[in-house]
């Protein structure tokens, strides 16, 4: 007889196996292709190990241009979206406006609008209104419309946990409004600001549909890949994918490691603090102590 | 050193609601002054007016003779200790305390020295590099006090800072606050709904209700000679007898109540026929011991509770009115039984007569 515990274990195990297989098998296959010397992207027949596709990729000047464009657009989007998101978050959490809900809906609406529409409308607007042709600038603006909304939501969730009497206390202690903001409010929001920088960059870097319709004849990396795949299939694209997968995994590992170290430090500090609290506990007060 | 605060006809109106009305008073330099009142009586609004977070809708606030209109909280010589303390969680204890000095651009070395002195003052030496969250409630309290004192305020305002502490710590901190106030000679303005706190710490206090000051005076005067029915019933416990004033003798008066005629003290010289209330504190009522008394009432014992130092007895008068008396425990067996008939007495001096309609002159 198999115990029910064992059955459960088997079921859970096979579920997890299938789940992770579903997630990672395509990536693994795709990765293997990058090292197969066959000129068609395929796993079998295996024609021998090669670094050739990576070399070919590195020789592709258009890929480098697209990557540079992606970095320019990403950094610009961060520079525009994070301040706008911060300002919107502050506005929505502070002002007791009757139109607050309306403003919120307005700020969030780009997230709900299909990306293609954001791209096309930005492209047309700049073309018609200012005679500015589609290019990196329009791509940056189009992406920022919805990415700043993501940043706003992220920062808002942090602000809602902020105790505003801290600002009053700083103000009361002589700080100017600017000093209150930079010494008290902003440090509290720092984690949310870092996350929105990361989120904004990644959202921009991987964006395809909005960018495609806004960017005119320029190319970012996702658009370059999309165009390339439509023209002819080369394992060089698999090589590019392998590089990004490796970078992502490395990033995640570093992040996890740092978090682990921080948690260890925090636990150590808590232990010391507890000992201190015990040592410094208030001595029992005589019952009738006079004022 | 402390500075005085003058409030001249101060009023504060929020959307047609007057949170504070006609406050006209003076707080002496170096005084420990308390505002006592139930929640919603306007005392926190008053504190925010004095510290500058609000501008009065009418009237003038001056500190040390200087009109405070148009001067923000960051430019006033006041500091506030908030109800939730509002310590900066991301800064160390020392950084918290030194914050005001950092804003004033006090050089780092001097700042560190000052922080150490303040930690010494509030009995927390050596915790400067700790995080705020690692401190206990009482320790956080002291850090908040040190942080406010660091900017050397002339007036320190405290918004119910002890309400989050447990009873024992609260009693300890009362004495501690008083000590710090005496040592620094800063004017303390303290806000509380706890009369024990107000009485034990304050030089003088004001009882507030509905945005107005009901009575201002020394703690004993407020307890013994409440000026309005609100003060009489809000401060301490009391029994009330409603009735109409029927007879005036030179120093006392007699009112007719459903329980019977009562001899009362009439400090406000109410006239005959006035609808009035007699207030009698439970601790001024005693059992009849044969001697003559101004007022004696036949009662039955309803319940009683033993509270250690004293015993609280719930009685019912002849007409069924509940009456509370409190006697100190002298160790003797009082033979208290529910249902037992007793006679209780109180003097006319201890029955304070006030008009039913409070007159706010």
Identify the CATH architecture of the largest domain in chain B. 3-Layer(aba) Sandwich
How many E strands of chain B?
20
What is the CATH superfamily of the domain at 61-254 in chain A?
Answer: MetI-like
Q: Give, in order, the helices and strands of chain A.
A: HHHHHHHHHHH
Largest interface summary: A-B, 31 and 42 residues
Main sheet specs of chain B: 6 strands, mixed
Structural class of chain A: mainly alpha
* Average predicted confidence as pLDDT of chain B: 89
Q: Provide the residue-averaged pLDDT of chain A.
A: 87
Task: Indicate the radius of gyration of chain A in whole angstroms.
Answer: 27 Å
Strand content of chain B: 35-45%
* CATH topology (fold) name of the largest domain in chain B: Rossmann fold
CATH class category name of the largest domain in chain B: Alpha Beta
Runs of chain A with pLDDT <50, length 5+?
283-291
- Major sheet size, sense and barrel closure of chain A: none
Percent range of helical residues of chain B: 10-25%
* Rg from Cα of chain B: 25 Å
Just name the CATH architecture of the domain at 61-254 in chain A.
Orthogonal Bundle
Number of helices of chain A: 11
The CATH class of the domain at 61-254 in chain A: Mainly Alpha
